[in-house]
Structure formats: structure tokens, C-alpha cells
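*Target chain*
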Amino acid sequence: MKRLLSLFTAILIILSCTPTYAVDNKNSEAIAKQLLGLCHRKQVFLLGETHQNPMSQELFLSLVRNLLGQGKHVFVGLEISSDQQSNLDALLAGSTGSELRLYPAIDHSAYRNMLKQLGDYPKSVLTVAAIDAAVRENNRDEIMARAIIDAVSSQKFTAITVLVGNLHAIKEIKWHPESAASTRYLAERLVEKGMDVCSVMQDFTTKDAPVILSGQTPEKAAMSLDIIKSTYHAEDMTGDSVTDAIVVW
């Protein structure tokens, strides 16, 4: 009886430490394959996300798995402060990750679990880099762009894939005339530097099944503008050139 109680207690402890999010591996694998098919000729794959959605991390892992399965040498760029690279390396090597400081917007159990799973792959085929600005730096998109351009220029990698917030994946934005903003987000900066970029955003609207919106369609254009509604963009902006594709979950 005591042994059974001990076993039951151990099970409860394990369950209490298990992330409470649900993911659909089948959907993420199917979506990843479709996206890689759409973007297979591009130099850089930018996956935008709405933070704190575990399906985004599962999709990103599926993208990396598929690229590695194709025999690619993959560079992964993450929205983590560059001064945390040593702590990130320690987590990837198997540490608890308690020293790794993440921005609050991305710090959740699914994200840290994604990092641990990325650490399962050998460094010979996968490089995971903290490419974001350090805490006291403000020019985040410029710094992230520089890190990605350096990775492309090194010619060490056959696939470059990056996970960032949706706004950083904007390929082109027309600011409102009354706006004082002149921000050029990561994707636009890379395009200006001659990079061939595939930008994919995500929208977590309730759907019967995930769908991919791509091409020049009214639905995709409208969804693009809805995703970037927090920006003070021009009223006559159509949304056609904001991103290459949108995953609607």
C-alpha cells in the first residue's frame, strides 16, 4: 500500500510539472511542410507570432525538424537578448535554464520547452542564436537584421529560420502622414539589404482547422491589416505587400 501511495504521489508531482498547454503535432507538421514548400527558394524564413501561443512554438519546431530532415545545416535566430547567448547555450546543453533571462512577452513554458527541444540536436547541424538587442539598446530590428545578414554572409548555413513577433515580419509598411514613426521592421530591413525573405505571420482566430492564406487575395490583405492594426499605418495601405503568407489557427 505504501509503495502504491508513493507511486501515486510521484505521478502527481510529474503531472504538476508538465506544461498545461495543448498542441496538435499533426497540424503543425502539415502546416510546416506547406510553408516550406511556399518558401523553399528563399534565403531567410521569418515566422512571425502573437506571443504566448504554444502552437507557434510547435510550428517552429516542426519547421526546424523538417529542414534538418532535408539534410540542411540550420541557423535559428530567436528574439532573445544577445547578451544572454551564454545562458542560452547552457540551457541547450542541458542546464535547467534558470539563469536565462527572456523578455516577458516570450517567457512562457512552451517557449522554454521549445528551447530544450532545440538543444536535443547536435551543434554540427543546428546553431541557435540570441539575435535581439541587449536590454539597453533600442534599435532592435537593425541589430537583428545585422545578425541574420552575418549568418547568411558566413555561408555556413543552408537554411536560416527566425522566430519573432508578427510586427517584425512586416515586409513593407506605409506610415500614416500624421505619424511620426519611421520604423523599418526586420523583414523590410532584410529586403532592403538584398535578402530574399519569406515572411509568414500567424493569427490565432478560432477556426475549424488551420489554414494558410497566401498570394494576392482580398482575404489575406484584410487579415494582414488586421494583424498590424496596432501600427499607425496609412489609410490607403492595401495590405498586399505586408507578408507572404498567414497561418490562421
